[in-house]
Amino acid sequence: xxxxxxxxxxxxxxxxxxxxxxxxxxxxxGDSEGGPAVNQLNLPQGVTPISREIYxxxxxxxxxxxxxxxxxxxxMFYSVLRHRKSLGHEAATFHESTKVEIIWTIVPFVxxxxxxxxxxxxxxxxxxxxxxxxxxxxxxxxxxxxxxYLSGEGSGIGFLSNLATPHSMIxxxxxxxxxxxxxxxxxxxxxxxxxxPVDKKIRLVFTAADVIHAWAVQALGVQQxxxxxxxxxxxxxxxxxxxxxxxxxxxxxxxxxxMPIVVKVLAADAYSGWVKDQQLAMAAKADDPNKTWTKxxxxxxxxxxxxxxxxxxxxxxxxxxxxxxxLDGDAIVNGPKDxxxxxxxxxxxxxxxxxxxxxxxxxxxxTYERNxxxxxxxxxxxPSEVKALRSAS
Length: 393
Ligand SMILES: [Cu+2]
Description:
By secondary structure, the chain is α+β, with helices and mostly antiparallel strands. The chain is built from nine helices and ten strands. It folds into three domains: 86 residues, Helix Hairpins (Orthogonal Bundle), CATH 1.10.287.90; 152 residues, Cupredoxins -  blue copper proteins (Immunoglobulin-like), CATH 2.60.40.420; 98 residues, Cytochrome c-like domain (Cytochrome Bc1 Complex, Chain D, domain 2), CATH 1.10.760. Strands 3-2-1-5-8 form a five-stranded mixed sheet, with no helix packed on it. Strand 2 and strand 3 form a beta hairpin. Helix 2 packs antiparallel against helix 3, helix 5 crosses helix 8 and helix 7 packs across helix 9. The protein is elongated and about 100 Å long. It starts with a helix and ends with a helix. About 1% of the residues have low confidence. The site of copper (II) ion (CU) has 7 residues, from loops. Copper (II) ion binds next to loops.
């Protein structure tokens, strides 16, 4: 063996590792509130009993594995070096020792059982969603999360949680694309975080509307797949107010990275205040789908709903060439209105179905699209028309 070469290789490897860490540290950005810290190598301990149990189990088992590793490899290297042929040793010739076989069956068995007992207790505790204070349904969509408060304080509240930064503002200035907003969190923030009270048992019920997603927040000790057509549940009880971040943890399509999770844990009073605000806002928005709306009202309402469409089709209605079609001057937007309504209800190719919007919201946004930019159909689409097509299709 050429030791000079080996030494050079080792030095290169050490340098590469160091350079890697340095570049991570220099990449800019600081610790993320409720997310990973710069140079963080360990798991977070989190703020729930389960997340702490996971942390302790992980470290404990790592120690067990390390001890076994050192004992086994130590014995092996010691034997190989001390009893090598060049020192005059000869191989033993014994065969089939029942005693040895019993020992090397029982010892690992005992170790595995000793590790399985606390791990099983934790897994069983993770699945015990009984007697929750609050139940929230979590729905995965391509590419956003929906939260519906089913029971407990705030039941009836429901909203969608989108990436806060519009698609058009995520780019590389080097490629002449628009610069992203300042700060480290423009790919982590959402417009409407999941808000829950501190020290309460929150049961989450998971499903998905299109493909499999997974709701994962390390600090809360929760990772659960959201599967279309199935209902799964999990729970957490956070003991520290704060902001906790997570991600969709199941590759779910092109914008998989654009559906981060933000959970805001509030003190009891602050949570009650938030619930009151949400209920007031909902009452203000309560729409009567049978009412006849004026075009002006529909346009005003449509402009706010369109913010969700603007993620892909842009505020200018010009879309993104090659990815998302323009609505400005589009044949469907200026053609028969039923086709336009059905497209929004059902989706097509990359365009998801928007049937989770209310009849009023769909009527308003379609009115807005048909009378904005260079589109001048002059039509005011009524919610009853959407309702009729929705029940017919
Ligand atoms: Cu997803």
